[in-house]
Give the backbone structure.
Amino acid sequence: MMGKFLAAMAISLAATLSAQAQTRELVVGAFGGAYTEALKKNIAQFEKDNDVKVTFIPASGADGLAKAMAKEIDVVHADMAWAYRGEAQGAFEKIDPKIVTNLDKLYPRARFSDYGVITNFGEYGIAYNPKEVTPAPSSWLDLWDAKYDGAVSTTGFDAANIELLVLMAKLNGGNEDNIDPGFKKMAELGKHIPVFYSQHPQLLDLFRNNEIIISRWLRGRVDWANKQGVSLGFAVPKEGAIALVSTVHVVKGRPNTELAQKFVNHLLSVDGQTTYASDLGYTPARAGLDLKGINVPYGEDVVGSLLIADWKKIVPKMDAWKERWEKEVVAR
Amino acid sequence: MKTSAVLVLPAVVILGAFFVVPLIWVVILSFLSSGPTGEVQQTFTLGNYARFLTDSYYVNDLLLRTIRLAAIATLFSVVIGYLGAFVIARAAPTTQTWLILLVMLPLWVNLVVRTLSLMVVLGRNGLVNQILVGLGISARPLPLLYNETAVLIGMVQVAVPFVVMSVFGVLQAIPRQLEQAAMTVGATPLSAFRRVTLPLSVPGILAGSVLAFGINVESFVVPILLGGGRVRFMSVAAYETATVSNNLPFAATIGVILLIVTMVMLGVYQWAVRSAGRPVAAVQAA
């Protein structure tokens, strides 16, 4: 009896393994949640055309790079900092323009480097409670206004606050190489901040309870807050919105490199790019799309006006900057 | 091979493979250096330890704050947990079962969910503030969230069930006759408790406080959510050093320093409580 059972198990296991061997598998590390759901939307046709099964796993940031270095995934998503780190550590294959033919349809700003490409942009601006904040904010410096002392928030040391830090340095005579003026300015902001939010629902609650009336936030999240019944305004400051950047890369040393390149091309296709706008509210990286009826900022001007610092210079300094942030901005 | 050795084998293998080996790797990592874009360089250095130990930010703001908060939370947890365990131990058997269930209940709820619900209770318009303002105890809502007090409340909430369970077990095992005997020779209920039950329950207090301190000092979800980014904590710093700064060796160093300090503190504490308990036991024996 037991012997028969084990034999049946072995046969079914062998059958499963051989079935898997027939269809190739492409493992894609993405940000998870709604983002991955949007990527899944157009995947059936790609799978059929290329006789491949695409598996999505949550992997980004430190985790994504670790999985790429361990060659556990074929394609990985990243942001500016992790993209440069991965490139420097030799984790990525060069993007092949012969396969990724959509490359020349992109805005020039979306061409991250030879080793990756930006798929879409988000906008960080100022979220505010219109009952308490009048007139509407027009500059990033409005966050510093003494009127909002104790009722202003932002996150901790994340990519968008690094952009804000660099912006403040630039507005005060500095830049990525001379960051002191930026830290001086951010330290002033730190004194006004009661809580550095870490989760979007947390900031939503802070707005709902009137504990915060003005904050750096993402455009898409402000729409989400309004749908949750917390009515907020969203302002794009005159200095420009801070870019939320998503990059995609082909992992080096995996068996299906060509297929991975095709997948990147698929993300940059008309359908793939339109989905970023329609399902996620992000600005596509591809020019010339028809986005009628989709309420998303789009176009060369929009992409051109986004604030994106020189991350190649920033990445080697992030460890030191993070320590300064804790000492100078977070400390009261 | 002796039977006991066979029985302990699975535990040893699992701990060895999934705890000791990674731990050794972390210790080695803490002596390596990190390149400009986060690559781990295979050169031996004491630089990470020097960076931590020579900077008052890391020593005072991070390490000492972590230990201080964990110790205060442990003290509160032990007092609250002991009272709870005492009440349960003296309750009728049926009530006892229900009370224990009540204590265990929070452990079945995800820690993030529990902490988030605590945020609702402690918020500016939360239950606690509504009661305080409603009863006129405070004119304005108090800032109960996003500070050290919030983190302390969160840690106590996590640790109390563990203290209750460790103390309850020991209290159950103490024969009630001992206390009754003390009272028949003239001790008041309070002094009978103080001189008989309390000293005998020291092993439970010890186990409970070691558990509570261990849990509190490694706390991660609680300081992240309730601290509002202002209350620094070793575990959070180690996580951010790895995931934001991308300096894995320095993150490992933070972890190793916390581990060593915690182990030394627990060793000293156990020794202190044991040697404080010994004279009492000797007096009782005489």
